[in-house]
UniProtKB/TrEMBL annotation:
Protein name per its UniProtKB record: BTB domain-containing protein
Pathway(s) of this molecule: Protein modification; protein ubiquitination
PANTHER family, A to Z: OS07G0668800 PROTEIN, OSJNBA0011J08.25 PROTEIN-RELATED
């Protein structure tokens, strides 16, 4: 049985002679019945019930169809379910209370408040309904309670609408304002003591932009994109300063590693917003210094974690270049291949050999799909270079001991085919001297 709520708060009765359950002064019985056969008689007073409940006021009215039947006005049946039986008793007792005590004392907790609220609505008691609504509207909810509220409250009507205020969709302008404020905070130069707050803000920004079972909270337009780009500009500038002046001191290395986390996050956000161009160009420009900075990290555990983060970002950058999402001139695309191809070629076998400890447990996790994505991106970028540059890259690949990764077999096959049929396919394209220009 539910806790007897009336024992938890003071009672002030309308009249010392009108107490619920007083058989000698009562003039009506509220008969509570359940489908399971539970049947309980509560001795009450008609003037109390009629004052506080429309249901009882109607049933005890002279106009009720059965009012002339013998004893019909002396016993009013209330049909309820077993799970809300005790809440009916609580509401009947509350009819005898002048509600001047604490709302918390009356409702006690969210579960009880919901039970009392439903009964109060069914019995037509607006004062108790208002009390329960006030309690629910102001109380914290656990996830299960929130789901229960969403099931119950919408069916109650306008009286309970304030309870749903915290769950209502926010005005789009308010969402954009919060998103931009969070983005500014998450890309700002903050002290180390605020790292957790920044991380939390970054996670929520990513969540706002993610399409899962629900649509993203933010639908970016050009104005939003422009403001976001400005916010990230400062982050990229600070990252560049650290990379370009990276020394071997522990503090510099730690700062570089912290920035990498922010940059990795920035890459994801800018990808979702489809404004990755500035980021990609920046990564291309500082790639050589990034590789130098990473090479200065001597501790094995830190080295692997840092290189993994670098690879994750580089993979996104190379994908954007490879698939035409960001258009770069030939010289920059070739630069990216020359910088990052040797880096991943050496890292892959090193990572495979060092990512497990003595118990064969992973020390540093790296998604296999990233390696596959890198291999595919390199192939696409190389195949988009001039044929002569492709030949140089392939020659170096075939002579290198790390030939297994990335595997450029497909690039080699395409290059051979294109080269063999080039004269025939391009016969109609003549140079000034009537011959195809050799690349």
């Amino acid at each position: 049985m539910e806790e007897n709520l009336m024992s938890t708060f003071p009672r002030i009765t309308e009249d010392e002679n009108t107490r619920i359950g007083d058989r000698y002064t009562s003039d009506v019985i509220a008969r509570l019945r359940t489908p399971e056969g539970r049947d309980e008689w509560i001795y009450c007073h008609s003037h109390i019930l009629m004052k506080n409940s429309k249901y009882f006021a109607d049933r005890l009215s002279e106009t009720w169809p059965t009012c002339q039947i013998l004893d019909s006005r002396n016993c009013v049946e209330v049909h309820c379910q077993e799970h809300d039986f005790d809440h009916h008793i609580t509401v009947l007792r509350l009819f005898y209370v002048t509600i001047t005590c604490s709302v918390t004392d009356i409702c006690h907790n969210v579960k009880n408040a919901l039970g009392i609220l439903q009964v109060a609505v069914n019995l037509g008691s607006p004062e108790i309904v208002a009390t329960c609504v006030d309690f629910l509207e102001a109380s914290p909810w656990e996830e299960a309670e929130e789901e229960e509220i969403l099931k119950i409250i919408p069916g109650i009507g306008l009286l309970a609408e304030p309870v749903l205020a915290r769950l209502q969709p926010v005005n789009p302008a308010g969402i954009v304002k919060l998103f931009l404020s969070a983005t500014l905070f998450a890309t700002s130069a903050l002290p180390l003591s605020m790292a957790d707050l920044k991380t939390s803000a970054q996670e929520q920004i990513e969540y706002m932009l993610t399409e899962d079972d629900d649509a993203p909270l933010i639908t970016s337009d050009e104005d939003i994109k422009s403001k976001v780009k400005q916010h990230f500009k400062g982050l990229l500038t600070r990252f560049n300063n650290v990379v370009n002046s990276c020394e071997t001191s522990d503090s510099q290395m730690n700062q570089f590693q912290c920035f990498l986390v922010d940059i990795s996050w920035a890459c994801q956000i800018l990808t979702k917003l489809e404004i990755l161009k500035d980021f990609v160009e920046n990564w291309v420009n500082v790639s050589e210094n990034i590789v130098k900075a990473v090479d200065q990290i001597s501790q094995q555990g830190e080295m692997l974690e840092t290189k993994v983060k670098v690879i994750e970002v580089t993979s996104k950058v190379l994908e954007a270049i490879a698939y035409g999402n960001v258009i770069l001139p030939t010289i920059k695309r070739l630069h990216m291949v020359k910088i990052w191809l040797p880096f991943v070629r050496i890292l892959k076998p090193l990572f495979d050999s060092l990512t497990t400890d003595e118990n064969e447990c992973l020390v540093v996790k790296m998604d296999v799909e990233i390696w596959q994505s890198l291999e595919s991106a390199f192939s696409s970028i190389i195949l988009a270079l001039p044929a002569g540059q492709q030949a140089e890259i392939l020659s170096e690949w075939l002579e290198n001991k790390h030939i297994r990764y990335p595997d450029l077999t497909e690039v080699f096959e395409v290059w051979c085919y294109r080269s063999k049929v080039a004269n025939r396919r391009l016969a109609h394209i003549k140079g000034n001297k009537g011959i195809i220009k050799m690349l």
